[in-house]
Amino acid sequence: MNRRDFLWHSGGGLGGIALATLLGRDGALANGGLHHAPKAKRVVQLFMAGGASHVDLFDYKPELVKRHGQPAEFGEPVEAFQNGLGPWLRPLWEFKPYGRSGKRLSEVVAPLGDVVDELAFVHNMVGKTGVHSQGTLLQTTGFNRPGFPGMGCWVSYGLGSMNENLPTFVVLPDHRGLASNGTKNWDSAFLPAQHQGTVIYPGAKNPIEDLFPDERAKFVTPAGDRAGIDLMTKLNRGHAATRAGDERLDARIRSYELAARMQLAAPEALDLSKEPAHVLKLYGLDHGKSAFDKEINPVEETDYFGRKCLVARRLLDRGVRFVQVWSGNDNGFPRRNWDSHEDVKRDHGPLAYGMARGAAALIADLKRLGLLDDTIVLWTTEFGRMPSSQGGKGRDHNPYCFTNWLCGGGVKGGVTHGPSDEFGYKPADRKHPTEVYDLHATILHLLGIDHTKLTVRHDGIDRRLTDVHGHVIPELLR
Amino acid sequence: MPRPLSLPLTLAAVLLAVPTGSRGADEPPGPAQVVDFDRDVRPIFANHCTSCHGAEKQKGGLRLDRKTDALKGGDSGAVIVSRKPADSLLLHLVGENEKDRPMPPKGARLTTAQVGTLRTWVGQGAKWPDDGSAANPADWWSFRPIIRPPGPEIRNPQFAIRNAIDRFVLAKLVEKGLTPSPEADRRALLRRVYFDLIGLPPTPEAVDAYLKDASPDAYGKVVDDLLASPRYGERWARHWLDVVHFGETHGYDKDKPRPNAWPYRDYVIRSLNADKPYARFVQEQVAGDVLFPGTVDGTEALGFLSAGPWDFIGHAELPETKIDGKVARHLDRDDFVSNTIGTVMSLTVHCAQCHNHKFDPIAQEDYYRLHAVFAAVDRTDKVYDADPATAAKRAELEAKKTGAETRIAAIEAAARKRAGTELVEIERTIEGAKQPAAPPRAEYGYHSAISDREDRAKWVQVDLGMSMKLDRIVLRPCHDDFNKIGAGFGFPVRFKVEVSDDVAFKMNVVVVADHTAADYANPGTVAVNVAAGGKSARHIRVTATKLAPRQNDFILALAEVEAFDAAGKNVAAGKEVTALDTIEAPVRWRKSNLTDGIFPTAAKVTVDDLAKLVGARDAILAKALDGPTAAERRAASADRDAADLSLRQLPASRRVAYVGAVHTGAGNFVGTGPTGGKPRPIFVLPRGDVTKPGREVGPGAIAAVPGVNGRFELPPGHTEGDRRAALARWLTDPANPLTWRSIANRVWQYHFGRGIVDTPNDFGKMGQLPTHPELLDWLAAEVRDGGGSLKKLHRLIVTSSTYRQASSGNPANEKIDGDNSFLWRQNRRKLEAEAVRDGILFVAGKLDLTMGGPSFQDFVVEKPEHSPHYQYHLHDPDDPKAHRRAVYRFVVRSKQQPFMAALDCADPSLAVEKRNQTITPQQALALLNNKLAVAMAGHFAARVEKLAADEAGRVSAAFRLALGRNPTDAERDALTGYAKEHGLANACRVILNLNEFVFVD
Question: Is it true that domain B436-601 has CATH number 2.60.120.260?
Answer without folding.
Answer: yes
